[in-house]
Amino acid sequence: MRQSWWKILGLVMVAASIVVGFLGPVPALFLLHETIRNVYFHVPMWSAMFALYLISVIYSIRYLSRSRVNDDLMAVEAVNTGIVFCIIGLLTGMQWANITWGDFWPNDPKTNGSAIATLMYLAYLVLRNALEEEQKRAKISAIYNIFAFPIMIVLMYIMPKMTDSLHPGSGGNGTFGDLDMDNQMRPVFYTATIGWILIGVWICTLRYRVRLLENKRNLID
């Protein structure tokens, strides 16, 4: 029970944010209207993805310094889990963009940067599958992963701030916190963000444990 408290906390936080996200009050905003509720779902997906990718980078660095197979396995499973949150983030963003801006995929630097970053991490998984020798695969993919993370930050956060963008917080636009979220929304938003990060880490650890069992079975066979 002591080791599971954060999992229970994550479930409670996500469940509460979903209920309040759909049923709770939101400010009456021009253009956004009820779609502002998507901030409870779209943004936390990206937050969970970033957290998982960061975990992956940390374990890639650990693998290069210690050459432990388990570190490589945790790194790849963090990416595998992060990709799921990435796809959900893209889908919720596309729906929101279509309602707010009239296009599922507007020509926006942050949107395009997100697509490139997604392809970059999918390429990481393809690279791993293309290399058969275990140590070579782990080392090359770890190096790739370490360089991919800062590039993703540049594509999704730095470049959009340097040019015109439809997204809040980019291209001189104010952030959601400055313009749209009131004091009733902020607690729900932060609850959703922390909750989804905890759920993402939980899923990652489950995938990691399954991968360990598969490795042990392969060694026995």
From TrEMBL:
It is a multi-pass membrane protein. The chain crosses the membrane at residues 12-33, 39-61, 73-94, 114-131, 143-160, 188-208. One of its GO terms (biological process) is cytochrome complex assembly. One of its GO terms (cellular component) is plasma membrane. The keyword Signal does not apply. Signal peptide: none annotated. Residues 36-158 form the Cytochrome c assembly protein domain. Its main location: membrane. The keyword Membrane applies. It is found in: Membrane. Keywords: Cytochrome c-type biogenesis, Membrane, Transmembrane, Transmembrane helix. InterPro entries: Cyt_c_assembly, Cyt_c_biogenesis_CcmC, Cyt_c_biogenesis_CcsA/CcmC. GO terms for molecular function: heme binding; heme transmembrane transporter activity. Required for the export of heme to the periplasm for the biogenesis of c-type cytochromes. Belongs to the CcmC/CycZ/HelC family. This is Heme exporter protein C. It comes from Sphingobacterium gobiense. The lineage of its organism: Bacteria, Pseudomonadati, Bacteroidota, Sphingobacteriia, Sphingobacteriales.
